[in-house]
Every structure is written in structure tokens, then in C-alpha cells.
Amino acid sequence: MDICYAIVPLMVLLAFCDQAASLECYQCNSAVDSECQEFFNHDLPDSSQRPKLCTMYQAQYCIKVTGMWGGVVGTHRFCSSRDLGNQCQDMRFPDHSRKYRGCVYTCSADGCNGSSTVSASIISISTGLMATVLFLVMRR
């Protein structure tokens, strides 16, 4: 019973270790990479899009930004040391009547900026689930 109280906090701590080690994010810009679209299937074997190790100082987040730059609608994925949040905004331009939607998505798991949804680390979820089950079993 006492070992349970030692193992559960250790397992919870280990669940967050993968996030502290080194983050891998998709890093691309649709202005220079035609495969870096807002939606892409990065699971295809011929896709060049793969998460890359973040080399910036204190990178903790993966970011995906969609919007309009220089009159071209595009997508930019990168690493960040700051949480930019999750938000979208409609934009109008004075020279025409079209409305564009720009969005920022922030997440903190490896490869999570490949789509518009924020995903959690599989290791974090499974370790947390195991710790909870172990705690409940040992508590009886």
C-alpha cells in the first residue's frame, strides 16, 4: 500500500517528462513549400512533411497560423517559446469585398500542429491513465 503512494507521483511526473525533453513540431511555410497547406495528410509515405526538432531557445509550443500574407492565403507552422493561444478573426481589406479568416492554433505535444486541432501526447495520456488505475486498485 505504501509503495502505491510512491509510484503514483513518480508516474505522474514521468507523464510530463517527454514534454520537457525536446519538442518536435511541423515547421514549414506554404509560401515556399507547396506541401505546407492548411490541411495535409502527413501520414502518406511520399509526404515530405515530418515533425522536426525545435532548435529555438525554450521552445515549448507548436504553432499553426493560417491567414493572408502579401495578398496570398497561406499557412505557417513553427516552434515557439510562447503560448499564442487559439483564436480566429475575420479580416476585410479595403480594396475588395471578400472576407478572410486568419487563425492561430497553439499546442504543446510533438507534431501536434499538423492539423487544426490541439492534441495531447499519447505517452502523457497513457501514463496518467495507468497511474489513475493503479491508484484506484491500490486504494481498495
The strand order across the widest sheet is 2-5-4-7-6
- Name of the CATH first level: Mainly Beta
Oligomer: single chain
**Which spans have pLDDT < 50 for at least 5 consecutive residues?**
116-126
| Total discrete domains | 1
CATH superfamily: CD59
Strand content: 25-35%
The string of secondary-structure elements, in order, is: HEEEEEEEH
Number of strands: 7
Helix and strand content put the structural class at alpha+beta
The whole-number mean of residue pLDDT values reads 75
Q: Helical region count?
A: 2
State the separation between the terminal residues, measured CA to CA.
Answer: 10 Å
Organism: Dreissena polymorpha
Signal peptide: 1-22
InterPro entries: QVR-like (IPR031424), Sleep_regulator (IPR050975), Snake_toxin-like_sf (IPR045860)
Transmembrane segments: 118-138
